[in-house]
Write a structure and sequence with these properties.
The chain is of the alpha/beta class. It has helices at about 15-20, 25-40, 100-115, 130-140, 155-165, 180-185, 190-200, and strands spanning about 5, 10-15, 120, 150, 170-175, 185-190.
């Protein structure tokens, strides 16, 4: 069973094998991370088509007798100020990933951190009074590589306020963290209660 350093007090904590013992599944992790990042896209880009630009639809000049090439509407895409052909319109970028596949991908991402020793367990009770200095010292003592992801529960406000102002340290509520967040962090810090929540969700 893998072990991890405990921040906030001395000693090691055992990492549950059902969370940190999953083999690495590259295709599943890629699929889940891609879905996470796609879901964060706002999808609000919008362009005007030739029927939506503010141009008259009247023929610019008569068909014959001017010596010029024939022309219709001035709002066509090939004219300056005209509409956009096949431009983006508001849309959703969400990609569906099966629940079991997403859970397996998250366990796989967590196991990568366990294998390379880049995961630590946080004793949040040591940060009941917010202290950024104490949090930064704990990360430095552990030897954390940045960027760092800290997973907490909603009740651990003191720890949240302690870590959130440290550069290149992201703090997320454990239920809001995705595979892309976990696999994209060089170091992972999980509070003891967040670890229990992960075990309940993913095991």
């Amino acid at each position: 069973m893998a072990e991890a350093t405990v921040l906030g007090k001395s000693g090691k904590a055992a990492l549950p094998a059902e969370l940190f013992g999953e083999p690495f599944h590259q295709s599943l992790v890629h699929e889940a991370a891609r879905a996470d990042l796609a879901a964060r896209r706002r999808g609000t880009a919008s362009t005007l088509t030739r029927g939506e630009v503010s141009f008259t639809t009247a023929k610019a000049w008569r068909q014959k007798g001017t010596g010029r090439a024939r022309v219709g509407s001035l709002g066509v895409p090939n004219r300056y100020g005209g509409g956009t052909a096949f431009g983006p319109k508001p849309r959703r970028y969400t990609v569906k990933v099966n629940r079991k596949a997403r859970r397996r991908a998250m366990r796989s991402a967590l196991s990568v951190h366990a294998e390379r020793g880049s995961v630590a367990v946080l004793d949040a009770s040591a940060f009941e009074t917010p202290s950024t200095k104490q949090a930064a010292a704990a990360l430095e003592k552990w030897g954390a590589r940045h960027p760092v992801l800290v997973l907490l529960t909603a009740e651990e406000v003191g720890a949240l306020k302690s870590f959130r102002n440290i550069p290149r340290v992201d703090v997320l509520e454990v239920g809001a963290a995705g595979v892309a967040d976990v696999i994209g962090a060089a170091s992972l810090v999980v509070s003891e209660t967040a670890l229990a929540t992960l075990k309940e969700r993913l095991a």
